[in-house]
Design a protein that fits this description.
By secondary structure, the chain is α+β, with helices and mostly antiparallel strands. The protein has two domains: 33 residues, no CATH class; 182 residues, Protocatechuate 3,4-Dioxygenase, subunit A (Sandwich). 11% of the residues lie in helices and 24% in strands. The protein is built from one helix and eleven strands; from the N terminus they run H-E-E-E-E-E-E-E-E-E-E-E. Strands 1, 4, 9, 10 and 11 form a five-stranded mixed sheet that branches. The protein has a four-stranded antiparallel sheet with strand order 3-2-7-8, with no helix packed on it. The longest helix is centred in the N-terminal third of the chain and has 26 residues. The termini are far apart.
């Protein structure tokens, strides 16, 4: 069988083509990672009263000796733009239900008990690398209407330099997630971007699991997302 020989020019062309394909693959993966985080509704339980001194630890209330009931978790990540650049000084608001699925809000008619040591709201400002971090309680599921039960989730309102993102974060492997009408309102190809990732490196064994959740804000010229 005859052996095909290639010229040096052909070999260089093949090499350049292969490197181009590899680069395009990396760029495609990069673009996928930096697609904007899907927005969701603000919800009816956005806090009416916000304490000025609220820090990043939702498990305690300043001036009270008790600690919130439930599973302690860490939630952390970065705020980025679609170019992959960190958004410094972004305001990240978090609010949520307590471990029993009850919000500290007058409009919440859930009969589950309130937690006197849990307000369910905190604010952080991102650092130079766009990072934020909260210590909180994993929220409980709660009934919405009829047979609809909302899965555990956290609400976020992220305000960057020129835009705003309102969204919700869900936990991996939750059987209620694919049944949730609000989560399923996000197009299926983008739905994985509203689920956090378990992080074993920052998890505190026998104390607090850690989850990573990055926010990717839209481009500089995009209209701010409102709810």
């Amino acid at each position: 069988m005859a052996t095909r020989r290639f010229s040096r020019r052909q070999i260089l062309g093949i090499a350049v083509g292969a490197s181009g394909l590899a680069l395009s693959g990396r760029l495609a993966a990069f673009a996928e990672a930096l697609k904007p985080t899907p927005g969701e509704i603000l919800g009816p339980f956005y806090p009416v009263i916000k304490r000025v001194d609220q820090g990043a630890d939702l498990t305690v209330i300043a001036g009270k000796p008790g600690r919130a009931a439930g599973e302690v978790i860490h939630v952390m990540g970065r705020v980025l733009n679609v170019e992959g650049q960190p958004v410094r000084g972004a305001r990240v608001e978090l609010w949520q239900a307590n471990a029993q699925g009850r919000y500290a809000h007058a409009s919440d008619k859930n009969p589950a008990p309130l937690d006197p040591n849990f307000e369910g709201f905190a604010v952080q400002t991102t650092d130079a690398e766009g990072r934020y971090r909260f210590k909180t309680i994993k929220p409980g599921a709660y009934p919405a209407t009829g047979n609809w039960v909302r899965p555990p989730h956290l609400h976020f309102d992220v305000t960057g330099k020129v835009n705003r993102l309102v969204t919700q974060m869900y936990f991996p492997g939750d059987p209620l997630f694919p049944l949730d009408a609000i989560a399923c309102s996000v197009p299926e190809p983008a739905r994985h971007r509203i689920i956090c990732r378990f992080d074993p490196e920052t998890t505190e064994p026998y104390w607090a699991l850690s989850y990573l959740f990055d926010f990717v804000l839209r481009g500089r010229d995009a209209t701010p997302m409102e709810a």
